[in-house]
Amino acid sequence: MSALDWPVHFMVPNVEASRRAILRELHASEPFTLVRAPGNLGDQLIAAGARRLFASLPYRELSIAEALRSGGGLAVLMGGGAWSNPYHEVMPSALRALAARYERVIVLPSSFDVSVDVVRDALLETRAIVFAREEDSFRALGGICNERRLAHDTAFFFDFSPYAIEGRGVLHAFRGDAEASGRAPIATDNRDISVELQSLDEWLWTIARHADVHTDRAHVMIAAAMLGKRVVAYPSATAKIPAIAKYALADVRVVDLPPVITPVAPATAPQNLRERLTALGEESLRRLPALPNGAPRVTVIVLSYNRIDQTKACIASLAAHVRIPFKLRVIDNGSAAPVREELARVCAQYPFAELQQLEANLRCVGARQLGAESSDTEYVAFVDDDAEVFPGTIEQLVHALDRDPELRGVGARIVLPNGKLQFCGGAYEVRDGVIRFVARHRDAPFDALLAPETSAWLGGTAFACRRDLFADFPLDLGMSTYFEDNEWSYRITRALPHAFRTAPDALVLHHQETKERRGSDAAEIGRAVDFLVPIARFYERHGLVMEDFFGFVPELQLPDGGRDVGAARILLELMTLKGGDWVAAQWTDGGLESLFLRREFLQMRSSRWYQLADRYWRLRNKLWRLV
């Protein structure tokens, strides 16, 4: 008897036990809502297996957006791999939103990367029963989920027997998206069938027609193995391929690729730039009066979150270059355990460093406010963990505050690794209900001659201020992770127009990470919504649309360069009323298309032919009324 003659639960160990484990959490007579997740044809196989598993039970199937317009007793969220980088935004958001509308939630077998911020946060706060589909994820959920379970991916419950044919040749089915490892041997005949083909049936027959399957997609691997193919699996950018194979598919050969050797700081500036910044900093120090001694008057606060190499470089630069007495406060915002342990070892090397490790992620805005409130020095300075200071950086900021008692805060000159300025001070412009925060001197050479000048906002990369400024003007915790420095500065400068100034001799090298939206898939939409949440808060508080909004929602930029501000306001109102999770689900499922179609209508209305037709019909109606 060939392997294809065996029922599924004999081919794969523990499938029957997995079936019982999942069904045990359901009450046979209780109707439930099966919540369908977006995804490719591999995700459709997950859904098809779940439908077969639940065939004898009373349930309705809804998309995430439909489920969030409904509610009830039990929601069962479809499983998958979208709980890891780079695709991790939609599912954690869906879990939170479903928990608010249903009495109970079950997450079907999935793979989890708990080092990803939004994944870990969602799992820490959930009361849902969460199934892992392999042992690595199950172990990772320990101490995070109160109700964790282990069971096979629901794809294993699918009936593969109609596709059990003898195949010929080799199918190369490697992924071409952001989760590709970049190390798999992509053949010239490669077909990423999970996104290239149009139906699950076509996808399964394509696999069935081959004798050998080489892939780095989990469900191509599963389907091929269940159809008796010789499978060679390669790891993707996540760990799920070898983990699933080890737990469920002992006969699959998983290629053990050598580890990638990554430089400590991939965005490291050329050495000559760093040397030049150090020399300029030394020159600036010589122009200052005698440096103060005695008790520290400034606390430098560095926020850390899962970027140990960058944080170590930041701390090392402070230790090497600050010449005045200071306190260093490192606040870890709930990083993964290995990062926290390494950070504790690093901070123990510096007697002036104090490490505070937070159990929960307070986001940038919460941790900044906490750092300021818990400091006891006259001044506080903030330096991002992906930035480096140079001789005179902190001294110049402190000196500027000492010289002018009316000055409330001072910003540094921020240099990018390419030798151009990111900014040195800023302004803002308001036009037609849109506020634009202007970065002054952007793209100027790093050593351009700049004089101190009044600034309308302080960039959060590196600045210093009087500590009591955070008591007089607390940060708005509703700004979550991004743009909190813009909103805070906007409030302050409206009340105190000359509160801020620049200190161009305070030099900072910033290894900036890009933040723009890079596509229209579910992951990028979820990522865009993370930025839109604080933009919606800014709009709620000040009635202005931040110009950055249109970078994350280019659907509302008009071809003639204009912007549909009215539609932007509608979307921000929806975010305020419904929340980011709801908007992400609607956007992913196409529920915002009518809003985005306004762009086409506005473009049509501005065309010459539309205007001529409009004049014609207006004149015709006028003549008709005269008759």
Task: Write the SSE topology.
Blueprint: H1 8-11, H2 15-24, E1 32-36, H3 41-53, E2 59-63, H4 64-68, E3 72-77, H5 90-101, E4 102-110, H6 117-125, E5 129-132, H7 135-140, E6 148-150, E7 170-173, H8 193-196, H9 200-208, E8 212-215, H10 218-226, E9 230-233, H11 240-248, E10 253-254, H12 271-286, E11 298-304, H13 308-321, E12 327-332, H14 337-347, E13 353-357, H15 363-373, E14 379-383, E15 387-389, H16 393-403, E16 409-415, E17 421-423, E18 426-431, E19 434-439, E20 454-455, E21 462-466, H17 469-472, H18 484-495, E22 500-510, H19 522-542, E23 545-546, H20 549-552, H21 565-578, H22 580-588, H23 593-596, H24 598-605, H25 608-626
Parallel strand pairs: 1-2, 1-3, 3-4, 4-5, 5-6, 7-8, 8-9, 9-10, 11-12, 11-14, 12-13, 16-22, 19-23
Antiparallel strand pairs: 14-21, 15-22, 16-17, 16-21, 18-19, 20-22
